[in-house]
Amino acid sequence: MEYLDLTIKEMHELLKNGEITPLTLSKAALERAYKYQSDYNSFVTILDDALNAAKDLDDNVDNPLYGIPYALKDNISTKGILTTASSNILKDYVPVFDATVVTKLKEKKAVLIGKTVLDELAMGGSGTTGHTGIVCNPWDKERMIGGSSAGSAAAVALGIVPFALGSDTGDSIRKPAAYGGLVGFKPTYGRISRYGLFPFASSLDHFGCLTRWVEDAAYVIDALKGKDEKDMTSLPDDNKIYSELLDGKVKGKKLFYIKEIIDIDTKDINQEVQATLDNFNFVLEQCKELGIEVEAVSIEKKLLNALHPTYITISCAEVTSNNANLTGIIFGNRQPGDTVDEVMFNTRTDGFSELIKRRFVIGSYVLQKENQEKLFLNACRVRRIIVDKITELFKKYDGLILPATGGIAPKFDQKFDKLLDRYLLLENHLVIGNFGGFPSITIPSGVVSNMPIGVNITGPILKDSEVLNMAYALESQLGYKGIMAKGGNKNV
Amino acid sequence: MYKVVIGLEVHCELKTKAKVFSMGPNIYSEEPNINVATIDLGFPGVLPVVNKTAVEYAIKTALALNCTIPNELVFDRKNYFYPDLPKGYQITQFNKTIGSNGVLIINVDGEDKKVFIKEMHLEEDTASLDHYGSYSLLNYNRAGVPLIEVVTEPCLHNSEEVVTFLEALRSIFLYCDVSEAKSDKGQMRCDVNISLMKDDSKELGTKVELKNINSFNNVKDAIEYEIKRQAEMLDNGEKVIMETRRFDDNKRKTYTMREKVEAVDYKYFMEPNIPIIKIKKDWVNEIKTTIPMLQYERIQLYMNEYGLSRYDATILVKDKEVADFFEKAITYDDDYKKITNWINGVVLGHINKYGLRINEIFITPKMLVELIKLVEDKTISIKQGKEVFYQALQEKKEPIDIVKSANMSQIQDEDYLLKIALEVINENKEVVTEYLNGRDNVLDYLVGQVMKKTKGKANPAKASEILKTEIKKLN
Predict the structure, then answer these.
(1) Which of A55, A287, B106, B203 has its CA 20 to 30 A from that of A387?
(2) CA B146 to CA B124: how far, in whole Å?
(3) What is the pTM of this model?
(4) What is the pLDDT of residues A357-395, one digit of tens each?
(5) Rounded to 5°, angle at Cα A177 from A292 and A124
(6) Per the domain annotation, does B207 fall within a domain?
(7) Is residue B372 in some structural domain?
(8) Among candidate residues B354, B377, B405, the one where a domain is terminated
């Protein structure tokens, strides 16, 4: 039996009745990690020490994550364990403290198997810019898994671990989830403490998880959520146990989709986009079957077109400041120089790739005194307008439903024209969830050209439990529950 | 001639237990890099947590400076690269400062002057950087220490006004008990913006910034040097350039640090990791009640209500503990002037000599007043009073007990004194006759004889009275 292909609950039962031990699972996870590493490159670091950790666990199987192997995106601070953010500037950085999520998972006695590759410093959506190489899609090695939580998505899609943590600033969990046939969930902003997450854009950054089942996501978030004195933006706990509230009762729920995002000019539309839209219609029908009402809502195109530029402006502004600590003075890959200024200059010149520097330049530009009002502050205003608009709609609807992406995972050599209007909205609407801090989940909704695609549900803030429950019901209804790229017993 | 225009930016470290955004201890230490928390080093993933006490102290100070307090607390990032700045930005306040539009009244040469406070903000201090020729060392003890910056309007005009203002400002910090405000420990530092303009001109001259001057004396000398330097330049038809200068302690001169071609763009934006925090009116009012009466008001009170001179009042209020000591003392007796003289003379003389604080000495306000009363009612002489004061400090005994046990009290017992007086009269008949013949001054001799017989313990006034009465009887 391939224990790793089971749900967390199933593993938990086996651990409880003594059929398996944490060591059984960790051993299997490490085996798979090594087996797939050269082909897919999920990990920056694979932790052989996981076996000792698994061995040392007491026998008190007191919670669902006890003994469960997992992986962490390599921008999550782990005390004593290399954490690189997949960037040369941090290639040897070993943190002195654990992120709050890590502390919590340690308390739950989950077993850390490895640190996963990301797009450098979590910027980018392709999984191709990490300093240790590209991450491949387990469904098709020629294709991207998407990013920036690329390695975490690949590791779960390969069945190495039942869950992996990622971070999501624009769509960095929910997009790779769609490309990898996974569940990708980021709860409400503040639900999970960000202490120890290497920041990309602090006002947009969310922790979240990649799993193969909605139920597993609920178990993981149950373990991570809650107020943290170390993060002032963290929320008081809602004292709900999400995994226990999954009942699939969604009859009478109301969702909306944004017409302008779906209405794509059918003239020379590409097959994949068409298939994605067809799949979305299928999803809508299944919603109806479940008793969920879905309505089309119209939002001014001008506002929707502003989503991506607004995201770029705000995220680049915050990221340039957030990464100003990477100078090589206290930590990091310090480069020599004759003066202290030269040390900082050389360290940064050498440590960041061109793509990163480009974002820093954009960020500095939009924050400059002469540009700030027009660019940065206007972007903040647009963000507010968008959030207000969606929040207003959430008074009437329980959530927003849309295709997670505009198609299946692209090939590495695929030229894609991101600026084409018809793709732009369909590819970039997930930032709505980050702008408003809304809980947002992607689940697999179908297979196109042998590749998975996903659908996304975004709900009002604090309604994490409700969003999970809708996804839980829909997941069963759609029939792509627990799909795996490689040989798992629930493969399609 | 030129008119001098000066504005100040004064930084003061708050004496909270922890740092402003971390739990790192805020303790002054000579040993480098021991008071440092993870957050203070700006490691990836650390987040700031606002220290409520630091906010409270800042609001307290802002209120004492008569500033307007905003209804919400907002922090901003000031972005720049410098090795002493671990995160690559400083968390400070830019758009909405914790205090604005304040005023502090100072007294220069007996004249009141309003110094306008543009704004006051709360921020984190940087690490300190010590240069050693070919290398520099970083000390992170200071990184993250809560700092308030008081920015004045350009409304000061000479070094005396500036130093008076700085002293008044320091008194606010000390009276509010929010900082030790010691400049030798770098807890109070001052940037001076100074420009000269022609007397008849309406346009401000070119501004020169004197950075990080660490003692009031240096501020005074730096300003005076700079006024002279700029005046000479203008006299010679030269142009003063906009620049930042530093003051050399040893050479007592200012030197160019960097020329400011353009003002640096710090790309301020709102700190996303600290949510906007409501400042509740109730809390502000509560903080207000913790502000004691300040120096300026006390001077007014002491002069107008207690009849003290400005000179005496100013000495009393210099140190809040001394002023508090005085105010406690006058609850036991209302001879304000006498109490003031004792405090400003004997008490301050003693504590200044030994570098003590008034609250550290054994004598309490009550004991002091009791001692003063013993002198006033002539139980003991002034000279004895002072001796008792020092003895009380040394032996940690109440003055009143010392006087009792040393049998120091002047002899007031009239029967006893009468007996002695009659002895003296009998033994000095010739002198008595002289007195009766109108030579009043010989009475002193007779009093002296009484004193001699009582080993100085007789109350001389009483003795004199009794002698007079008895001699009259002889007549």
Answers:
(1) A287
(2) 5
(3) 0.90
(4) 999 999 999 999 999 999 999 999 999 999 999 999 999
(5) 125
(6) yes
(7) yes
(8) B405
How far are the Cα atoms of A88, A104, A113, A129, A303 from residue A47, in angstroms, in the given order? Answer: 20, 19, 5, 22, 46
Closest CB from B47, B77, B269 relative to A194: B47
Facing residue for B274 by CB, picked from A232, A318, A341: A232
Contact A198 B45 (CB under 8 A): yes
As for how many domains chain B has, the answer is 3
The boundaries of the domain holding residue B431 are 414-474
Residue B288 resides in a domain: no
CATH number at residue A106: 3.90.1300.10
Tokens of B432: 């008595």
DSSP A396-458: T-SEEEEESSSSSPPBTT----TTSHHHHHHHHTTHHHHHHT--EEEEEEEEETTEEEEEEEE
CB contact under 8 A, A233 and B275: yes
Spatial distance between the Cα atoms of A160 and A36, rounded to a whole number of angstroms: 9
Q: Which domain holds residue A293?
A: 1-492
On chain B, the residues whose CB falls within 8 A of the CB of A85 are 44
Q: Is residue A216 within 8 Å of A246, Cβ to Cβ?
A: no
Total CB pairs under 8 A between chain A and B: 103
Place of tokens 């940064």: A348
Extract the tokens encoding A294: 């879905």
B269 touches chain A (CB under 8 A): yes
| B342 and B462 co-located in one domain | no
pLDDT tens for each residue of B80-109: 999 999 999 999 999 999 999 999 999 998
Which residue of A101, A207, A321, A377 is the best one to mutate when testing the B interface, meaning the one whose CB has the most B CBs within 10 A? A321
Catalytic annotation, residues of A = 73, 148, 172
